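stuck on this fold:
=====
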Amino acid sequence: QAQLVESGGGLVQAGGSLRLSCTGLGPTGGTLNFHNMALGWFRQPPGKEREFVAAISRNGARTTYADSVKGRFTISRDNAKNTNYLQMSSLQPEDTAVYSCAARTGLDITTTAGLYDIWGQGTQVTVSS
């Protein structure tokens, strides 16, 4: 079964930055080809439900963000490296959450978690005040 692996989480002070990365593993352990997949990031704050953060189209031409992160977070992708990135700046304590990347084989980007086919385990981001 294909899976995604996130990295880059950690503890940071308010106002700081982090960059999360997400790569894919194919069903047999080889690289998962992202080229035909729209990608997204979601997060689950402590005690709360999972929420959409950002998404990017297959060729990177279109992106969309949650209002809460617009202007502070940037999603990008490098299809040659089969890697998806989430650059997070001006982090605040309310950004503390487990961040997960997701991929879907549909044509368009979406903010709906249920439309993504493949998920990562998540990486913890903790922002101290």
Remarks:
- The radius of gyration is 14 Å.
